[in-house]
Structure formats: C-alpha cells, structure tokens
Specification:
The complex is a heterodimer of chains A (about 325) and B (about 425). Chain A has about 325 residues and is α/β, with parallel strands linked by helices. Helices cover about 40% and strands about 15% of the residues of chain A. Chain A has helices spanning about 15-35, 60-70, 90-100, 115-120, 135-150, 170-180, 210, 235-245, 250, 275, 285-310, and strands spanning about 45-50, 75-80, 105-110, 125-130, 160, 185-190, 205, 220, 260. Chain A has a 5-stranded parallel beta sheet with strand order 7-6-5-8-9. Chain A has a 4-stranded parallel beta sheet with strand order 2-1-3-4. In chain A, strand 3, helix 4 and strand 4 (about 125-130) form a beta-alpha-beta unit. In chain A, helix 2 crosses helix 11. Chain A is globular and about 55 Å long. The two termini of chain A are about 20 Å apart. Chain B is of the alpha/beta class. Chain B has a single domain (about 55-365, about 380-400), classed as Alpha-Beta Barrel (TIM Barrel), CATH 3.20.20. Chain B contains 13 helices and 18 strands. The longest helix of chain B has 17 residues, at about 205-220. The two termini of chain B are about 15 Å apart. The model of chain B has no long low-confidence stretch (mean pLDDT about 95). Classes of the chains: A alpha/beta (about 325), B alpha/beta (about 425). At the A-B interface, helix 4 of A face helix 6 of B.
Chain lengths: ~325, ~425
C-alpha cells in the first residue's frame, strides 16, 4: 500500500499513486456500503473531532458518518459559536484540542492556509475539509471516484469545470487532481470569475459554454459562491444563468454520454437547470454524495494507519 | 572620542561613484580629511568598506502606543547594528504623530534613548483619516522633515488641498501610490501564485493608478513629492515621464521588493506579508534596474515591527510588515554580490539621495560632513537567526537565510555606536 501522508491537507501534495491507492480503498468501501456494511471497525478506539469554523451541513455529516461507520468516537465542534468569539487564536484552539489527544482532526476554515497552520501545531492526523479558496481535497477525491466509476477510467478524459472558479476551493483541488491523472481540464466562466493566471495552470480557459463544452466527457458545475463575493462579479443571476447556467441546450454540446456533476449545495436556476440536475441518465450528483462518505472513510483509515505506525515506531 | 583616524579602508563615495583604498580622519564629530593610499597611525580597517551611514527613511518605531513592538532604544540599537545612522521615522504609529505635541514627545524620546539620529515625519491628515490636514507649519517648526499618512491613501480632494498648502511651506509630501478601491482587501499580488493559493489578491495595476493620480496632483500644485514605494514595472513609465517633465518628484522602494518575490510567500509564510505585497520576479528585476538607472532614488527598510501573535495567524488575517533596520545592508549586498548594483550605487540610494531629498547633513563622504559612518565587510557569510536581531520584534523574512556581509562598526557624529567585536554599545 502506498500512501505516505501524515495529513490530508490538499491534492497538491499527493502523488498520483497515492490518489489511486485512496480511490481503490474508497471504491471498496463504497461497494461494502451498498452491501454488507461490514467494515471491521478500523478506527475503533480513535477519537475524531470535526472542527468547522465555517457553516457546513453535508461535508460535516459526511465526515461524521464516515467516522462512525468505521468505529471512531466522533465529536462535532461548532467553532463559530465557541472560543473564537472569546478572542482565542486558531493556534491556541489547536493546542487546546491537541492536549485532549484526538487522533483525527477534520477542519474547515474560511481562511486559505489556515488548516496547514493548525496541522503544524498538533500531533494527530489532520484532514482539510476546506480552507478558504485554497483546497477541498476530499471533494476532489469523491469527484474523481464518481468519474472513475461512471467512465471506467480517470485519465484522458475531457473535463469541463464551469462557473465560479475564482471563489472555489473545489475547483482548485479538482484542477490539481485531474491534471495529475492526465486529463484535459477546461475552465469555463465569465472572466470576472476566472482567477488571474489560471491559463498558466495547465488548463484551457473558455468564456463560452458552447465552445468549452464541446466533446466534454464530464461537465462539472460549481456553485455561485455569493457569500464570498464582495462587489460586482456578475450583472445578475438571470444573465448568469442565460450565459453560463447548464441547461439541455448547452449540455447538447458535450458528448452524448457526458455526465453532469455538482459539489452542492445547488442553486437551481442559477448555475444549473433543475431538470438537468434531476436527470438520472446524466446527473451523478447523488452518487457524488454517496462517494463522499466512502472517500472520507478511506482517507481516515489510511491516515489512521499511518498514525498508528508512527506512534508504534 | 570624536577624533579618530581610520586607515586602510575601502572608501565608498556615492557622490563620486568611486571605491578607493585610503584613509579618513574624524575631528570634532565631522569628517576632517580624506586621502588615498596608505597612512600611518590610527585604526587599521584591514581593507573593510567605509561608507556614509545609511539614512533609512521608512522606519516605524512603536512609540507612542506600541512600545511592546519596538521602542526608540531597541530601534536605535537595531539601526546602529545595521549601519543606519539616521532613522527618518514614520507617523503611522498606533497614536498617529499628527500634532506638534506628539512630535515633541517623539523627538524627546528619541534623544533620550536612540543610539542614532532620529528625524521624524508627521502625518499629513489628522489621525491619518484623510479628512483634515495637520498643522503642517507648526509641525515643520517642531522638526518634521516630511509628511505622509503611511499606507493610508488620502482622498483626492483633500490631498490636492494638502499639497497646495504644503507647497507654500516647501514641505515634502510622501505618497503611498495605490488605488484603494482596487487594492482593498488584497493580501498578495494577483497572478498564478495567488490564485493557486486562494488568497485575496490585488492587481499590480493599482500602484500605477495611484501613482498617476498623485503625479497629476503634483503637476497641479507644484509640491515636492516622494512616492514611498514603487514596486511594479507598470508604474515606472509614469515616474519617468514626471521626472522628464521637470516635476519635483522622487521615488523609493523597500529592500524587500528588491530582494524577494511573490513566490517567497510559499506555504502562507506570514513574515513575507508586506505592504504593498511582494511582486513577480519580473517586477523585482525591473525595480533593481530602476535603482541602477536612478529612476528610483531611495532604498529603505520599511521597518515595520510586528509582535509574534499578529503574525501567528492565517495569512489573510495576519498583520503586514517586516523589520528591516538590521537586514537592510546585508540584503542590499545581495544585489552587489549578484553584480546588479555597485557599492557606490547602493549607497547613493541608501545614504546620499535620502540626505538630499530630506535636507539632511549626512550621506556624503567629504570633509565637513558629519562623521556618520558605517564600516562593513561585504563578504562575511552567515545564516541569519531572527532571535539574534536587536529589534524587539523579530518578524524578518530573512530568518534562516544565507546572508553575506556584516556591519563591523558604526559611528554617529564621530562616536562609535556599534562595534561588532563588542556588540551593541549604546
């Protein structure tokens, strides 16, 4: 088995072999989840703390279920309501928690780089559940697993990532991952939502859905992150939907068997037509959620294994 | 002892642009005589470089208000250890230096505690808020050498009035060229790196826009103007045009923008968060060339002490600024070792030009000038340890980096204020 990480902070640090290891393991969990649900409790005796400095429903629930299925003792801390309000710094919060000897720390934070800052101060395994606009590695991994299962491979695919790239950590992690696995990645969006310098990332940038979606195998829609925007990025939601929202007409430019993905939560009628999202022949959005639990189980199991090995050494 | 003879020294004369082996005699705190070749007696400098003391025009001291970050004593010690003989201090302290009374406090504290000369700047507008101008006349009488609002950008109408008024008193105004509308919230320079790291970024164009505005106002009012930091290639043509048109304009750059670039931020290292943010390598190279060509006149440290807590935060939330008094010369020597700038070119930007621009007596190596001197060996290699710095705050981006060149001795008015063999003296 090849997975040599202490933490899972981003896709950028992972080797393609590590990604494959993780996806193989996750796929096994996904199958077991659909069948026996016997996982052998590999996290038994370990404590998992979910620290979410930013509101989250699905990611937090997914990590919690993943931990519980594998036998971990899971605790959720809603950090916005807690010590931060009393003026404690992130590092002090980390040190305080560290003193309680957790084994797995799942962290989401509104600032890019904050999870790494925290990981440097603790001696347990840290999983990044999203830091600012930087990375969201488990989301990219679950997307990759969904694609691999739907397409039968994870290389030489044309994958279009559409919409609000600028504010999206999901996009950054996906660009890293899909690039490492040797796919053609396209970014499509209005120029205000394409980050400066993106053309140097080894991707193709398009400002038009018809051109960008041409012959795509995978269409990955992103949520318009209104809460991260300060000031004018788009004129209105209806103009945005008209030019960049995914509907049947725009989807017709992609390959006939192209799949449609969305990390959720969706803004129906803003970035995606509800009928497309619900089309069971094209949309894999529900499978993405399902794979989320499997990927998080795999990531925590692999990190816990490394943690135990380090402690034994 | 303010009389001394220093012999066997490489004399760096920024005015003549020369480096010659010779001697220098100090008498009554002034440079009395300079000569070439060997001479008997006095102190043998063993071939070390002897240059006019650095005049650092970008120093923030934590007094008043933030003495836990830097006091006049610690700043003075850091300056002496860095070969800085005059600190021109910034008014953007926690309590802004915007009245003659506060300025007098600063002057008194500096006299009591600082090992080197201190010449204060004062705020341009009250509380640096960009609404009402300060008492520019009284502040000049109290010793203010220039006026600026630090990194706050004064609204156009207020700035035009301040400049018109300052013109009548022949006061020097420092601007911070940024378009605040564009640069608001930016922690790094926009580009491939910033976008990958997911950090809020500002286009380098914000600097050119701010500079163009300031220069138009200078043209309108005729004020003496110095752009505190020019850090992007896009801003240089505007600067060149203004100078060619005969406007009384000079420009500066911090040593960090000459020796570091945006990639140094790496994994969100907050000691590399400065204002304006570090730029691309192309910009850095263009700034070095602009200093060599004389388009950029002054190199300063932009010494901004920050305590540990304000830097131990996520990058976006961390404070900006880096200490630089002690690392200014060793970092500048990187440009000398890279053969980008000669030693006289360096000291033209570090000592001669600031003295000229701020109307100070030092900065020259000629008889009659004050004996504010720095002796250094440009070749001594070492790894910088931030905890070995004299500054109270240790937020240097050069921590753990290989440096080349050390200050051996510093004189202010002929008196030794730093001797490497003995450590800090004052």
């Amino acid at each position: 088995m090849t997975f040599n990480q202490t933490h899972l902070l981003g896709i950028e640090e992972l080797h393609p072999v590590e990604i494959t290891t993780l996806l193989d393991r996750a796929n096994a969990y996904a199958e077991a989840e659909r069948g026996s649900r016997e996982h052998g409790q590999p996290l038994k005796g370990l404590t998992q703390i979910n620290m979410f400095f930013e509101a989250s429903t699905r990611t937090q629930a997914s990590f919690e279920i993943a931990g519980k299925r594998l036998g971990a003792d899971v605790m959720n801390m809603a950090m916005s309501a807690s010590s931060l309000k009393k003026g404690e710094t992130l590092i002090d919060t980390a040190l305080t928690l560290n003193a309680m000897h957790p084994d797995l720390l799942v962290v989401r934070h509104p600032h890019s780089g904050a999870v790494k800052l925290l990981a440097d101060k603790v001696n347990c395994a840290v999983l990044n559940a999203g830091d600012g606009r930087h990375e969201h590695p488990t989301q990219a991994l679950l997307d990759a697993l969904t694609i691999r299962r739907a397409k039968g491979r994870l290389h030489r695919l044309v994958i279009a990532i559409c919409g609000d790239i600028a504010h999206s950590r999901v996009a950054r992690s996906n660009i890293h991952l899909l690039g490492k696995m040797e796919n053609r990645v396209r970014l499509i969006g209005p120029p205000t939502l394409i980050p400066p310098g993106a053309a140097d990332w080894g991707v193709e940038v398009y400002g038009d859905m018809a051109e960008g979606l041409k012959d795509a195998d995978v269409v990955m829609m992103l949520r318009l992150q209104k809460e991260r925007m300060d000031g004018a990025f788009i004129p209105s939601e209806r103009e945005y939907f008209h030019r960049f929202g995914l509907n049947a007409e725009k989807l017709s430019f992609a390959k006939p068997d192209a799949i449609v993905m969305h990390p959720g939560p969706m803004n129906r009628g803003v970035e995606i037509d509800g009928n497309i999202a619900d089309d069971i022949n094209r949309s894999v959005i529900q499978e993405q959620v399902e794979m989320g639990v499997a990927v998080r189980m795999a990531a925590m199991e692999l990190l816990a294994g490394n943690l135990r090995a380090r402690r034994a050494a | 002892m303010t009389n001394a003879l220093l012999r066997n020294a490489r004399l760096i004369d920024p005015e003549a642009g020369s480096v010659t082996l010779g001697w220098l005699r100090i008498e009554g705190g002034q440079i009395a005589e300079i000569g070439q070749g060997p001479r008997a007696g006095g102190i043998d400098c063993q071939g070390a470089c002897l240059a006019p003391g650095i005049i650092d025009i970008g120093v923030k001291v934590g007094e008043p208000g933030e003495r836990h970050k830097e006091s006049f004593r610690t700043a003075g010690r850091a300056a002496a250890a860095g070969g800085v003989t005059t600190m021109v201090t910034r008014p953007d302290t926690a309590t802004p230096i915007d009245t003659p009374e506060v300025l007098e406090f600063v002057t008194r504290r500096a006299q009591e505690d600082a090992a080197v000369k201190v010449r204060p700047m004062a705020a341009l507008t009250k509380a640096r808020e960009g609404r009402e101008m300060t008492e520019i006349g009284f502040l000049i009488d109290a010793g203010a050498v220039a006026f600026c609002d630090g990194d706050a950008v004064c609204p156009t109408r207020v700035l035009s009035r301040c400049m018109t008024y300052a013109r009548s008193l022949d006061a020097l105004i420092l601007g911070h060229p940024q378009d605040p509308g564009l640069s608001h919230g930016g922690a790094v320079t926009s580009g491939k790196f910033a976008s990958l790291r997911g950090l809020p970024a500002v286009s380098p164009m914000a600097e050119r826009m701010g500079l163009e505005r300031d220069l138009a106002l200078v043209e309108m009012t005729g004020v003496r103007y110095h752009a505190d930091q020019i850090t992007t290639a896009a801003a240089l043509p505007a600067l060149a045009r203004a100078k060619a048109a005969g406007l009384d304009v000079t420009a500066g750059v911090s040593i960090h923008h000459l020796t570091l670039n945006a990639f140094d931020v790496g994994d969100y290292r907050t000691f590399f968060k400065v204002k304006p943010p570090l730029r691309d390598e192309d910009d850095r190279v263009a700034m070095v060339a602009a200093v060599r060509d004389g388009l950029i006149d002054i190199i300063c440290s932009m010494h901004t002490p920050q305590d540990e807590e304000s830097k131990r935060l996520p990058f976006e939330a961390a404070a900006s600024g880096a200490v630089g008094l002690e690392t200014l010369l060793p970092a500048a020597l990187r440009l000398y070792h890279a053969e980008a700038l000669s030693l006289p070119e360096l000291f033209r930007a570090l000592a001669l030009n600031p003295a000229r621009r701020f109307g100070l007596a030092g900065g020259r190596l000629c008889p009659g000038a004050p004996a504010d001197l720095v002796m250094f060996d440009p070749d001594i290699p070492y790894v910088l340890d931030r905890f070995a710095l004299q500054s109270k705050s240790k937020n240097t981006p050069f921590d753990g980096q290989r440096m080349q060149g050390r200050v051996l001795r510093t004189w202010v008015d002929g008196a030794v204020v730093y001797d490497r063999a003995q450590g800090a003296i004052a």
